[in-house]
Design brief:
Layout: E1 8-11, E2 14-17, H1 32-49, E3 56-63, E4 74-82, E5 86-95, E6 98-108, E7 140-146, E8 149-151, E9 164-168, H2 180-188, H3 191-195, E10 197-198, E11 201-202, E12 204-213, E13 221-232, E14 235-244, E15 247-258, E16 269-271, E17 277-279
Antiparallel strand pairs: 1-2, 3-6, 3-12, 4-5, 5-6, 7-8, 7-9, 9-13, 10-11, 12-15, 13-14, 14-15, 16-17
Helix pairs in contact: 1-2
């Protein structure tokens, strides 16, 4: 692993995953947090090349159609549509000449809000109290909330309760500026942890991610709280609200397939802030 905590190092235009990018599904499979963050980085670089500093991210979708291995990755980008108030960017991730994931970003130009009144929910998500999770810009183990309250003890939250998470984003690439959009795109994959984590662990694997943002996060500290879940015949759709210390940002929708034969069980797992995963007896 690089000295700096990050999901990737770079060799020219190629990204090389660090051990922190490895999923719990397989020792040779990357998790969606690293993938979505890397794809978002590529989309931002494409927007910067186009010179569009007047736009900000509003929609982000990712298709995880092939397991990404722990090997070098390359990215191809295309501006699909560009106008005065909009820019659509497509990104494809390739390993050994094969496409493994794709993403699409919509960047919009901020203007003034319309004057009419519209409905908004009365419930507002809140991060953990500051004495539990002080403000930080450094990566750390996520906090989760269920009937057990806020804690970093994964075992306490392996239940059928409604869940929330509070995350400090991990940089996508070592020695690069880590943006709020990259953090949000990466953390969006964690929607499965608040919508598909139950009494046996996580028994569903993501097939795609859809994130919408009304504004960018104020920092790389970002939360998710489950708002809905629908499941039938092994296909699950989970919805979460994304928020930061100033309130709601947007939404995340995760589509997933049942994967019970390869369940990710957190009953005997703990993490350290530098990304090390340990098996523990409880």
């Amino acid at each position: 692993m690089a000295d700096e905590i990050a999901f990737f190092t770079h060799q020219g235009d190629t990204l090389v995953p660090t051990p922190l990018a490895c999923s719990m599904w397989s020792d040779d499979q990357m998790h969606g947090v690293a993938l979505s963050g890397a794809l978002a980085r590529a989309a931002e670089l494409c927007l910067a090349t186009a010179g569009r500093t007047d736009l900000r991210p509003a929609r982000w979708t990712v298709d995880l159609f092939k397991p990404a291995r722990m090997i070098p990755c390359t990215f191809a980008t295309e501006v699909v549509r560009e106008g005065s108030r909009i820019c659509l960017v497509d990104v494809t991730m390739t390993q050994e000449g094969r496409r493994v994931a794709r993403a699409s970003a919509t960047f919009l130009k901020p203007t003034e809000s319309a004057p009419g009144g519209v409905w908004t929910p009365e419930e507002h998500p809140e991060p953990p109290p500051l004495d539990v999770a002080p403000v930080t810009t450094e990566p750390r183990v996520p906090f989760f909330h269920s009937s057990a309250g806020w804690s970093q003890n994964f075992t306490e939250h392996q239940n059928a309760d409604r869940k929330a998470s509070w995350n400090s984003g991990i940089p996508v690439v070592a020695d690069e500026v880590f943006t709020g959009f990259q953090a949000a795109a990466a953390i969006a994959d964690g929607g499965s942890m608040v919508t598909n984590w139950g009494t046996n662990g996580v028994e569903y694997i993501n097939t795609d991610i859809a994130m919408t943002l009304a504004r960018e996060p104020v920092s790389v500290e970002i939360g998710l709280v489950a708002t809905d879940r629908v499941e039938r015949d092994g296909i699950a759709v989970g919805t979460a609200t994304m928020f930061d210390r100033q309130g709601a940002l947007g939404t995340v929708i995760i589509a997933a397939l049942a994967n019970a034969r390869r369940t990710v069980n957190f009953a005997h797992v703990e993490y350290t802030d530098d990304g090390e995963r340990r098996q523990v007896d409880r």
